[in-house]
Design brief:
single chain; about 950 residues; mainly beta; eight-stranded parallel barrel; 11 helices
């Protein structure tokens, strides 16, 4: 034993010496490095959570290993399944906090389960033989050490090994233990490809673990889960949901290229990350969509499957793997060895296209070929997308080899006559003569700039250097063309450092930092400016465009009035960053125009054809207005089957107006047209009945003059589709009120986030029986992208009775192409208990959240709680206006959830913080603690935080 202690001491001294010998430079982002090349060329990885608690759970290490071997575990099976998925690497998560902290290798370091059979070596050997890398998962987290009622971490054995007392159930002790494991693995497994880190441990960081890995195993990769740690190679974004479409994983990520990033998600629809019994379904459409959209953003798909004890996948996961092995083959060139298109590598615009279509672009940097992936097909037989200045020479269906008809003008590529739709992803190969139509040598200036991120970065051609607005809004960017020139559009690549929509990720509020409302002006001298265009950009990834017709000027000034993100997500609020802005002077145009151009239809009265740079076919018909005598008539609008269709009209209008459509001589249907430019078309849609075969469609204006560029016909959106909106209702959270008659002020704000047109919009509360409402419904006849509707009301309960338990819905109703839709929020109210003088939910909108965030919690009193309290001074929750009837001593009841020992520091009215030590098991079990407090009569302020360490999650406070 003495000799063993001596050896341990010598090893510890050597490691300590290594720490002192390594003098790393300050941590900086490992954005690009030769060791990353194999991962950059890959498309996907296979994530395997597999350990002692794989069903059926084992609490004895030897028995688990016996069943693994006895069940026929073989490493080749995992490697073969990975290859079916097109995965270039496997991440093995066995040393996992929820799987018993097992080590799949014969470790010499005691402390948790270690196998006698060297499963890790067998797996790396099998992977090497078949060209699949293996990465080892490592956890930082000891909090689940006794989740099964049995202690899985052996502090006594590790303490004896180290010759000092170490508690493995603490973060410090576990950090020391796992730190030693890193070095053991680095010493013995040269064929490993790296470590996948499930968040950082303070001990690792203090002892420069990552810097030492870089020196000992310089070719190994480091990946961190949900955090962008500078020294890591990869950022992994875990299990994002709530996007639209649901498969559009990149919409929820926050990592700009060329930083390597993963999308880490479960293939089974339900269940844990590990096998817990049963055979969960795999949603093929969802997971194929994720796979393709990730490739379209240069994000690696790290797909989690749940092997059983014997290593085999459940039947439905194995079936999915077999499907992928054959489905991918015909389109392999479009998803392997490519980059995402519409970003720093060039390419056309991804995202939403015509008639409900959605997809991404991939581009081969070597050949320049682009691939249009139509993941959601349009309700039409064509796809129309922004071409980003690429002059297209050829379009081919990648699966069938069919050469496709196409047309190109007004900045759009239209692929026509599509009949062979793939169920999951129709892929078109697009060959071009390159990108053209943009000015070089444009200089940029800005009214606000963060140090180190100057406006010059906007036009330098580099997507790795960007401009930062330094949180200023409004903020203006001036573009100097050098002399007076014609400008037709701006192409803007914003920094992809935020998700596209408001969301909560592991209790952290996130939102989009992209441009919402803008104003564009022009000047010849940089002093006298005239208005060009006002509008809104969608919160979307990839290149965004502002068309301006034909403007002659030396200067263009883009003023960003605001961004999409709200103050509930302070990390993203007003954080505008832009990689590149380019000024375009012309659009590529093909020899043939698309069908249903207005200039090709019959005209009457003052309707006439005029040149229009931004219009399809470079012409439009103007003079529409004043009634039916000035009209455009299409006599051959053909559809295969009779029914109601979406008729899209691309209209120009300098003033707010209205357009009318008559089909086959029927009474006209009218719809509002917003003011914009007379030389830039915008879409307006109307639902119309069409007969099978040929139809006559007559278009005219009934208000201010209009211009018509083109029309198109597509199917109606499905009844399940509701345009994305943000409905904010305050107060948020259960409102606990005194007995008797009560009133509540309700405010609501509806924002249209989708690039759709909704009509007859109404917003109002719906009261319970007997309640009265002060205030009328808020209404708007029509709303477009970024449109707002706000209302304020007071709801009052019936006289002579308590509120009891009621919920007041707040509903926004509207029409989409004459079909009813609605979205709702609510204000729940409860009468507080008789022995409480004050009750408030932690998630109440009256509180101040700092950098904490709200998260759902089914067992909690209002179905939510506040998470991520502690660790820094701003990670605190402040309750203002905690009102009591008289000054004096009170009891504060704190409802919380926690897994393991943690503390709040509670401050009342700015006084010295008092530590409240708490403990519990599981983050979904609410507990109640009691704290004596002294309060002033009237309003008080109570703050919960912990500057140094994580605190429990907070559900509610009450005063009694």
């Amino acid at each position: 034993m003495a000799l063993r202690r001596l050896c341990v001491a010598v090893v510890a001294a050597l490691l300590a010496g290594l720490v002192t010998m390594i003098t790393p430079a300050a941590a900086q982002a490992e954005v690009q490095h030769p060791r990353q090349e194999w991962l950059r060329k890959s498309t996907a990885g296979l994530f395997l959570h597999w350990g002692m608690f794989t069903a059926p759970k084992h609490l004895n290490c030897a028995e688990w290993e016996q069943d693994v071997t006895g069940g026929g575990w073989t490493p080749d099976y995992w490697i073969d399944e990975a290859k079916k998925l097109g995965a270039s690497y496997v991440v093995l998560a066995t040393f996992h906090s929820r799987l018993g902290y097992a080590r799949p290798w014969p470790s010499k370091i005691p402390g948790s389960c270690a196998t006698q059979r060297d499963l890790l070596r067998e797996l790396t050997k099998a992977g090497k033989a078949k060209g699949v890398k293996v990465i080892l998962y490592m956890t930082d987290d000891p909090q689940w050490h006794a989740e099964q009622g049995v202690e899985m971490l052996d502090s006594a054995a590790y303490s004896a090994y180290k010759g000092e007392k170490v508690d493995l159930t603490t973060r410090e002790g576990f950090g020391k233990y796992s730190y030693d494991l890193f070095f053991e693995v680095m010493k013995n497994y040269d064929d490993l490809a790296g470590f996948w880190i499930d968040n950082d441990n303070e001990y690792w960081e203090r002892n420069k673990l990552y810097e030492q890995i870089r020196q000992i195993q310089p070719t190994w990769l480091l990946s961190n889960n949900n955090e962008d740690t500078p020294i890591m190679d990869t950022v992994s974004n875990e299990q994002k949901t709530g996007m639209f479409p649901s498969y559009d994983y990149p919409a929820a990520t926050f990592t700009p290229m060329p930083r390597l990033s993963e999308a880490c998600y479960k293939l089974p629809t339900t269940g844990d990350w590990w096998y817990s019994g049963g055979d969960s379904a795999v949603d093929t459409r969802l997971n194929v969509g994720r796979y393709i959209t990730n490739a379209g953003s240069s994000i690696k798909s790290l797909m989690a499957e749940t092997p059983m004890v014997n290593g085999k996948m459940p039947a439905q996961q194995e079936t999915y793997n077999n499907f992928m092995s054959s489905w991918v083959t015909p389109i392999k060139e479009s998803i392997q060895g490519v980059e995402g298109g519409g970003y720093m590598y060039g390419g056309m615009q991804p995202g939403f296209w015509n008639d409900g279509a959605h997809g991404v672009i991939t581009i081969n940097p070597s050949t320049g070929k682009q691939y249009v992936h139509v993941v959601t097909k349009p309700r039409a037989d064509f796809v129309r997308l922004r071409d980003n200045g690429y002059r297209v020479s050829k379009v081919t269906d990648l699966r069938t080899g069919e050469r496709m008809k196409f047309s190109q003008s007004a900045g759009h590529l239209t692929i026509e006559g599509i009949t062979a739709w793939d169920e999951y992803d129709t892929v078109f190969t697009v060959e071009t003569h390159g990108q053209q139509g943009f000015y070089d040598g444009v200089k940029a200036y800005a009214t606000s700039t963060r140090d180190g991120f100057p406006a010059a970065n906007l036009t330098d051609g580099s997507y790795e250097k960007y401009w930062d607005a330094n949180a200023a809004q409004p903020v203006s960017i001036s573009l100097d063309l050098g002399r007076r020139k014609e400008a037709s559009f701006l192409a803007i690549n914003q920094r992809e450092s935020s998700p596209t929509h408001a969301r909560v990720s592991f209790g952290r509020p996130e939102d989009s930092s992209r441009i919402k409302d803008y104003q564009l002006t022009a000047s010849d001298d940089g002093r006298n400016w005239w208005h060009v265009r006002t509008g809104a950009l969608p919160s979307a990834r990839g290149t965004q465009f502002i068309d301006i017709g034909s403007v002659q000027a030396r200067w263009l000034r883009l003023t960003v009035l605001n961004t999409w993100g709200g103050p509930q997500a302070p990390v993203y609020f007003k954080e505008l960053k832009i990689d590149e802005i380019r000024v375009g002077h012309s659009y590529p145009r093909s020899a043939r125009d698309s069908a249903l151009e207005a200039e090709d239809a019959a005209r009457s009265g003052s309707a006439r054809s005029e040149f229009c740079e931004a219009c399809s076919g470079t012409r439009q018909v103007t003079g529409l207005g004043g009634g039916e005598r000035n009209a455009v008539t299409y006599r051959d609008v053909s559809v295969a089957a009779a029914g109601t269709y979406n008729l899209r009209l691309d209209l120009t209008s300098a003033s707010a107006s209205s357009v009318s459509v008559s089909v086959n001589g029927a009474a006209p249907v009218s719809v509002a047209v917003p003011a914009d430019r007379a030389d830039v078309p915008d879409p307006t849609s109307v639902a119309v009945p069409l007969n099978a075969g040929r139809n006559t469609v007559r278009v005219f204006g009934t208000g201010k003059p209009l211009g018509l560029d083109r029309i198109s016909v597509g199917g109606l959106p499905p009844s399940s589709y509701t345009p994305k909106t943000t409905l904010t209702v305050e107060p948020h959270g259960v409102q606990w009120v005194a007995p008797g008659r009560q009133s509540v002020k309700i405010t609501a704000r509806l924002r249209l986030d989708a690039d759709d047109q909704i009509d007859n919009v109404s917003l109002a509360p719906v009261l319970p029986a007997g309640w009265t409402l002060t205030g009328s419904p808020a209404t708007r006849p029509s709303m477009r992208l970024a449109g707002l509707l706000e209302g304020v009301w007071t709801a009052t309960s019936p006289e002579g009775q308590d509120v009891g338990s009621v919920t007041i819905p707040v509903t926004a109703s509207f029409q989409l192409l004459s079909s009813d839709r609605k979205v709702s929020g609510s204000v729940p109210m409860r009468t507080r208990p008789a022995d409480r003088v004050f009750v408030r939910e932690a998630e109440d909108s009256a509180n101040v959240f700092g950098s904490t965030g709200l998260t759902s919690c089914g067992p909690c009193s209002g179905g939510e709680k506040v998470r991520n309290i502690g660790g820094s001074p701003d990670a605190a929750v402040t309750f203002p206006n905690v009102t009591v009837p008289a000054a004096g001593a009170y009891r504060m009841f704190i409802t919380y959830t926690v897994n393991g020992p943690r503390s709040y520091f509670v401050s009342v009215n700015g006084g010295a913080p008092v530590e409240v030590k708490l403990d519990g098991l599981g983050n979904n079990t609410p507990y109640v603690a009691e704290l004596p407090v002294t309060l002033n009569a009237g309003a008080n302020t109570v703050k919960f935080g912990n500057d140094q360490a994580g605190a429990p999650d907070l559900d509610q406070i009450a005063i009694g």
